[in-house]
Specification:
The chain is mostly helical and about 80 residues long. It folds into 2 domains: about 10-45, no CATH class; about 50-80, no CATH class. The protein has helices spanning about 10-15, 25-45, 55-60, 70-80. The longest helix has 24 residues, at about 25-45.
Length: about 80
């Protein structure tokens, strides 16, 4: 296992300390949180990056039909 030293603001630590039984509980919780973050990073790094066009991004937000053409819609709206 790797070991790293981290620094945490004392005032912040004192605010959360009542949520834990003791320093061992804090250490276990921090260990689990760091492992979760690292697993998420690994998952993000392993997923292939997909380039999406602005039309695809907007379609995902607006839930428009797959064959909807935003450019044509805008052209028709302003030039009719």
């Amino acid at each position: 296992m790797c070991t790293y030293n981290i620094s945490i603001d004392d005032a912040l630590m004192e605010r959360v300390r009542p949520a834990f039984a003791d320093n061992t509980a804090i250490g276990k919780w921090m260990q689990s949180q760091v492992e979760i973050l690292l697993l998420q990073m690994v998952g993000n790094m392993e997923q292939p990056r997909q380039e999406t066009s602005i039309t695809q991004q907007l379609r995902g937000i607006a839930k428009a039909p797959a064959d909807f053409d935003y450019k044509k819609e805008l052209a028709n709206r302003y030039f009719e």
